[in-house]
Design the sequence.
């Protein structure tokens, strides 16, 4: 799929356009990037301080998301994108992980091309198989994204950090940024019991501050529902996120064993749509 989106990509070293030759991406200044046999390409501009999700975390996320537990969230993200159609849709997801959300959006936009970006090579391998119209790129969202200016119609940030200036740079002026963030009620039944990472109660305020000057919010909706999770579902849920780094497997297993065979757990998120803002130039 990389050859289908190469016109959207940029060299991470010099920002020049890229071309495909056999299984290599090349820029006019001589920088080259080989595609991995698993179907992704690394466009890191240097060593990243962020390691990203491990193979074990990605495998746990695939198990949980394939179980359909977050399908209502994927459907809501897809609806948010369909609400802003484009005649040349190009969708970028940053921190794309397994590519489940990107795939849902591409299914909802049949003519769209997609790029999933993640710093984790384990994620990139899974992303490359996520959808026939999705390309997989390894990159660090805290540096300049290897994407050309104003070429994407939609950008997705799902449970992921946001580099607002970069997301604005790659969006078309009429493009849409879709951000999904958890509320403080998300997974509340498990947070205390299993020692999971809590949602920052100031998350909404921090999101607004991060977007200020770069984006204006169009709307926001809350999606909240109850999930019935088995022990194995709960284990995958914990193992797929940052909580996996704070609770070892044996301790996690002991605590999960104390739960009922089926636990009722709340999924609660906010989905916000944004338009890019551009600085106005004062008349001289």
Sequence:
């Amino acid at each position: 799929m990389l050859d289908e989106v190469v016109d959207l990509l940029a060299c991470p070293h010099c920002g020049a356009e890229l071309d495909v030759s056999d299984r290599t991406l090349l820029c006019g200044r001589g920088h080259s990037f080989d595609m991995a046999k698993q179907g992704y390409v690394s466009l890191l501009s240097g060593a990243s301080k962020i390691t990203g999700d491990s193979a074990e975390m990605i495998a746990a996320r695939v198990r949980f998301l394939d179980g359909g537990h977050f399908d209502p969230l994927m459907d809501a993200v897809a609806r948010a994108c369909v609400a802003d159609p484009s005649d040349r849709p190009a969708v970028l997801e940053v921190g794309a992980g397994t590519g489940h959300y990107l795939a849902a959006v591409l299914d909802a936009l049949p003519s769209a091309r997609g790029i999933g970006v993640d710093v984790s090579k384990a994620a990139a391998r899974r992303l490359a198989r996520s959808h026939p119209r999705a390309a997989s790129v390894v990159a660090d969202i805290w540096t300049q994204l290897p994407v050309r200016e104003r070429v994407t119609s939609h950008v997705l940030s799902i449970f992921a950090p946001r580099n607002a200036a970069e997301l604005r740079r790659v969006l078309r002026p009429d493009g849409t940024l879709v951000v999904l963030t958890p509320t403080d009620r998300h997974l509340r039944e498990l947070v205390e019991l299993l020692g999971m990472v809590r949602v920052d109660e100031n998350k909404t305020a921090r999101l607004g501050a991060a977007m200020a000057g770069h984006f204006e919010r169009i709307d926001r909706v809350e999606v909240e529902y109850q999930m019935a999770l088995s022990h194995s579902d709960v284990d995958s849920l914990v193992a797929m996120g940052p909580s996996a780094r704070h609770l070892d497997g044996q301790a996690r297993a002991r605590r999960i064993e104390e739960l009922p065979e089926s636990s009722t757990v709340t999924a609660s998120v906010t989905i916000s749509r944004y338009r890019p803002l551009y600085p106005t130039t004062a008349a001289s």
Notes: DSSP finds ten helices and eleven strands in the chain. The longest strand covers residues 215-230. The chain has a mean pLDDT of 91.
